[in-house]
Specification:
mainly alpha
Length: 129
């Protein structure tokens, strides 16, 4: 088989987001307080993703279903629809012990989490630079 037959795939997951949960937080708390709450929630979500990534890297899947459920809830509370749905899909693969599907969906979760967090931080004016 030659290199001519190799195709580099570049997955491009479409992010689905719902602005209403964050808009509600801003309406209820006002700009300054809402910014703190949303920033804290995004940070917590990023820390949860980081913890999950460390678990996967260490092949320690104990308690991972609970952490994925937590990630799903946090994502939904922030209107990160795609991230929440994919977290549920990863949990489903984990519960079915489908290693191949888990690997594929986990890679998708990482891509979507990275893009979701970057998109939300830039929307809120929280990026450095």
């Amino acid at each position: 088989m030659s290199d001519d037959n190799v195709v580099a795939l570049r997955p491009n997951d479409r992010l689905r987001q719902d602005a209403e949960p964050i808009a509600t937080i801003y309406r209820n708390l006002g700009t300054a307080s809402a910014e703190q709450v949303v920033t804290r929630a995004l940070t917590e979500l990023a820390l949860t993703m980081s913890g999950l990534a460390a678990q996967v890297q260490a092949h320690d899947l104990a308690d991972m279903a609970r952490q994925l459920r937590r990630l799903q809830r946090m994502s939904e509370n922030l209107g990160l629809v795609s991230l929440g749905l994919i977290a549920a899909d990863v949990r489903s693969c984990l519960e079915r012990s489908d290693v191949t599907a888990f690997s594929a969906v986990w890679a998708r979760l990482l891509r979507v989490a990275e893009r979701s967090l970057a998109a939300d931080r830039s929307l809120l004016g929280l990026t450095q630079g």
